[in-house]
Amino acid sequence: MKTPQSRTSRRGLLAAAVLALAGGGAAEATVVWRRSSTGGAAPTPAAATLSPTPSPTPDYLAAAKAKVAAYVAESGNGHVALAVRDRTTGLALTIGGTRFPTASIIKVDILAALLLRSRQGDLDITDSDRRNAKKSITLSDNDATTKLFWRIGGKSGLSAANKTFGLKETRPNGAWGSSSTTVADQIRLLTALTDENGPLDDAGRRYLFGLMSQVDEEQDWGVPAAATTATTGVFVKNGWDTIGADGGLWQVNTIGRLVEPGHDWLVAVLSGHHRTHPAGVRMVEAMAKYALKELRKIPIG
Questions:
Q1: What per-residue confidence (pLDDT) applies to 1?
Q2: Domain membership flag for residue 256
Q3: Are residues 130 and 18 part of one domain?
Q4: Sign of the alpha-carbon torsion through 181, 187, 188, 192
Q5: CA proximity to 115, closest of 214, 211, 199, 179
Q6: 109, 154 in Cβ contact below 8 A?
Q7: Gap between the Cα atoms of 300 and 16, Å rounded
Q8: Cα dist from 214 to 110, 134, 137, 210, 252, whole Å
Q9: Domain range enclosing 35
């Protein structure tokens, strides 16, 4: 004859088995035994305390990338590429890997190479160099740039400097404006030039970005269009030219930096196949503005 205790024990085992099959465990549900009016024991499950399933964290950057990529594809017709990197938060995106002619954005690279060679002790920067640097960056003067180009050793000198800057996809040309590059490489260049532990010293970085903050008003387009009232630092260098291999259509490029609370944006937009220079300016400005608008929406922290 089975005693009540043995029946209770068997029921307890059965209840435990049911809970196990239902996915319950000691950490998820508790069974409290109460004596019935007939003297038997009946299991009454207490309210189970279940941890809510956490919602997945939204991938804000992936969503922003998708929107920017769609905008570039729709508006650029395959003739534009864009890259952005935030030095503060690490947010970054790159849309397009086409290599474009640099036109005058290469002037930043050339001046950076001059400053690098000076830091390495290979040359002393003269007053003439400083005059040419100011004309090259703030006025986009080609003659002044050519003088700096030969000061650094021309194509081979620029290629050597670019290895130090970590560039992978830039191809210097003896005719410096016909060099080619990608948006990814332009972000690599700007990253190297802003890095406190990078190839340029403090004085060199201040000098270069000081000139990029003084660009002539007529050339102050491109990246600056993406600035807001909160932006405290605006630095830019643009490049534009007609391309014979593209039927004389316009190449329009912009690279630069925008500093604002919580962000230090590095931006590059390269584009081509424009019927007019103003059309190219409108496109690169629209790309920079849209990309930063989307990236600024991403919560920080």
A1: 47
A2: yes
A3: no
A4: positive
A5: 199
A6: no
A7: 47
A8: 18, 9, 8, 7, 20
A9: 4-45
CB-based contact 76:110 (threshold 8 Å): no
pLDDT less than 50: residues of the chain: 1-42, 44-45, 48
Provide the pLDDT for residue 277.
97
Q: How many angstroms separate the first and last alpha carbons of the chain?
A: 68
> Number of structural domains, the chain?
2
Q: Identify whether residues 116 and 157 lie together within a single domain.
A: yes
Q: What does the pLDDT look like over 116-147, one tens digit per residue?
A: 999 999 999 999 999 999 999 999 999 999 99
pLDDT at 2: 44
User: Do 196 and 104 have their domain in common?
Assistant: yes
Tokens at 199, concatenated: 């190839």
Same domain, yes or no: 31 and 114: no
What is the side-by-side order of every strand in the sheet holding 263-274?
92-95, 80-86, 263-274, 249-260, 233-243
pLDDT, tens digit, for every residue of 23-57?
Answer: 443 333 333 333 334 444 445 445 545 555 555 65
Residues 30, 153 share a domain: no
Write the secondary structure of the chain as one string of H (helix), E (strand) and C (coil). CCCHHHHHHHHHHHHHHHHHHCCCCCCCCCEEEEECCCCCEEEEECCCCCCCCCCCCCCHHHHHHHHHHHHHHHHHCCCEEEEEEECCCCCEEEECCCCEECHHHHHHHHHHHHHHHHHCCCCCCCHHHHHHHHHHHHCCCHHHHHHHHHHCCHHHHHHHHHHHHCCCCCECCCCHHHCEECHHHHHHHHHHHHCCCCCCCHHHHHHHHHHHCCCCHHHCCCHHHHCCCCCCEEEEEEEEEEEHHHCCEEEEEEEEEEEECCEEEEEEEEEEEECCHHHHHHHHHHHHHHHHHHHHCCCCC
Q: Say what the pLDDT of residue 184 is.
A: 98
Query: Tell me, what's the pLDDT at 16?
Result: 42
**Sign of dihedral through CA atoms 68, 71, 73, 79?**
negative
